[in-house]
Design brief:
rod-shaped, mainly alpha, 99 residues
Length: 99
């Protein structure tokens, strides 16, 4: 009887030690994986902010292009381009050139 109790007690200690070791190992592994996931999450958040800023920048550029497209179609732009690029003037204008 006594020998059986010792055997059962020893088996209980071994199984308790193994269970404790597995629990500690799982806790460590989960902690490591949790840290890795937090780092990935921070990286993704930074990438998301960068992309959102780039989207805003591209939207502003698109608005500027639309405004330029509208301006290019106006009479004022056509007159400016004719004066600057072609040197054209109205018949009743006097050109004064400085030396």
């Amino acid at each position: 009887m006594r020998l059986e109790r010792r055997k059962v007690g020893k088996q209980f200690k071994i199984s308790a030690f193994v269970s404790l070791f597995v629990a500690i190992l799982l806790t460590v592994l989960l902690g490591i994986k949790g840290r890795q996931l937090r780092e990935e999450s921070e990286t993704y958040a930074a990438t998301k902010e960068k992309l959102e800023a780039e989207i805003l920048e591209q939207e502003e550029e698109a608005k500027e292009i639309e405004e330029l497209e509208k301006y290019v179609q106006t009479k004022k732009y056509i007159e400016e381009a004719a004066r600057e690029k072609l040197g054209l003037v109205y018949p009743d204008e006097i050109i004064i050139k400085s030396k």
